[in-house]
Amino acid sequence: MPVLTWLTREHDLKSAQNAPYRLLEETPELSAGDAATENMLIQGDNLDALKALLPYYAGQVKCISIDPPFNTEQAFEHYDDNLEHSIWLSVMYPRLEMLHQLLAQDGTIFVHIDDNELGYLITIMDEIFGRKNRVSIVTFKQGSATGHKSINPGLVTTTNFLLIYAKSKNDWKPNRLFTGRERDDRYGQYITNVEEHYENWKLIPLSQAFAASLHKTAKELKEMKKELGQEYEDMLNDFVIKNSTKVVQPARPDYSNVGEAARQMIDISKEDASKVYLLERDGYSNMYFNNGQRWLFYKDKLKEIDGELIAGEPLTNLWADLLSNNLHNEGGVKFPKSKKPEALIKRVFELTTKPGDLVLDSFLGSGTTAAVAHKMGLRYIGIEMGDHAVTHCAPRLKKVIEGEQGGISQAVNWQGGGGFRFYRLGEAIFDEYGQINRAIKFPTLAAHIWFCETRTPLTPAPLPEGDGKTPLLGIHNGTAYYLLYNGILGDKRPEGGNVLTGKLLQLLPPHDGPKVIYGETSRLGDERLRRENITFRQIPYDIKAR
To answer: Is 184 among the domain residues?
Structure first.
């Protein structure tokens, strides 16, 4: 397979591997809502943050949606989006490698990009994710050819793109989605007596039925249409939807492409055009025929989208119904020229997730992805490097918790609740010799170990000093977890606080059940460990990090 070459490629191929492993340290004053939530908002370089997440979430993220810098040679308020191609590639390649490791086997990644780096992005994603796992390239209508853009000669750019890749296309199982469409005016006939036996059904023009519902003559209806314009069309559309079991389109089937039973019914119906004939089918819609034509019912075109019955069609790779204009107030934060509509992210998640799945955005921007995930009942991780992790993302998510009603809130009936925890990147866990960095504090390492073992946050955090200090992190599903580190028991000699000895074992808070103990080493034999129901994990080798 062809690969892309750039100036720093060989160095960049090792960037993910060489990134330091850092622990995540919670900043409680910036967290909000339910303290037991697994939702994470992380401030820091996203390469280091992704590396920090690997022990927790490798192979577990169901959907990744990112909106990286487009490299448009423009200066935005919150981004330096003017990178040389090789620098842009050096940023993207290692991060996409990390994201590939985090993605679940049946997971999906969406990358939002414009045409400036589109070709390069396709090439490196084909290399990392595999060309065979490329699902689609969606064209997303970003705006309209209006305003100052329409003044310049040449083509007006109104679209962006979404590159969609599966971790494994063989395991990829998307949801079936429909989008709204305009009323199909080919459905122009109306059954006047649908309550009678189907053999006696009679048709009149739809316009005649609509006029009768408004107590109007044909002439008055025509004048009304001219006067009201779009309002008239909306009224007619509502009438059709409310009467979708009566609105039909007579259509002549392709005789050679229907089954034997349908062909027989077509022939019979031609013999007596005064009657309607029914072909009942198990597991499928019944078929009605008259004078060689099949009556297609408008009700079969309706789909429930955001709780509303509308005419729908299967989702295509052209998304022209989710414009990015008028977004300045969405989410209650300003993010000029960079904010994406909540409806766009909602569609991404509807296509690939179900409630409770884990999603991730490592270029969080104004927090749209996290806000949408929160409202849709998904677990989420958002990473943002800049100050707007504090000034934009956290305030936006707090509003969501409080029940903010912008964006998709009404479509998903959002009422508020939930929470998130705010994290920053701490010290690198290992020094250059592969040992635990001396700057790592007991509470930080304890929180990391607890989460790796139990997949739940450690609450409350352990105390590093004073009367409350203890090596017992907690009990989860009947197993007690202990950490012997930094002389937590007050004795920093090797035979004291960090090494599991028979004497130290007597000092540990007791537990009548399985015990997992982390420490520098154990001086208890295998038989003693089995007898005491202890699983010993050695620091640093058994710390899940690299």
So the answer is: no
Rounded distance between C-alpha atoms, residue 440 and residue 430, angstroms: 9
DSSP type of residue 503: H
Encode pLDDT of 32-41 as tens digits.
999 788 899 9
153 pLDDT above the threshold of 60? yes
What is the gyration radius of the CA atoms in the chain, in angstroms?
Answer: 31
Provide the whole-model pTM. Answer: 0.78
CB 113 within 8 A of CB 137: no
Q: Are 330 and 342 in contact (CB under 8 A)?
A: yes
Residues 358 and 501 in one domain: no
Same domain assignment for residues 89 and 140: yes
Instruction: List all residues 6 or more positions away from 324 whose beta carbon is below 8 Å from its beta carbon.
Output: 142, 143, 339, 340, 341, 344
Q: Which of 81-85, 107-111, 291-295 has the lowest mean pLDDT?
A: 81-85
Is the residue at 544 inside a domain? no
**Residues 400 and 455 occupy one common structural domain:** no
145-151's contacts with Cβ under 8 Å and 24+ in sequence apart are none
Q: How far apart are CA 240 and CA 185, in angstroms?
A: 10
What's the CA gap between 289 and 281, in Å, rounded? 14
- CATH classification of the domain holding 338: 3.40.50.150
Query: For residue 161, which amino acid is it?
Result: F
Give the CA distances from residue 529 to residues 48, 446, 504, 515, in Å, rounded to whole numbers and listed in that order: 37, 22, 13, 10
Give the integer Cα–Cα distance in Å for 334 and 328. 6
Residue 251 and residue 293: Cα distance in Å, rounded? 5
Structure tokens at 356: 């409770």
DSSP state at residue 322:
-
Q: Distance of alpha carbon 86 from its chain centroid, rounded?
A: 29
Contact 184, 251 (CB under 8 A): no
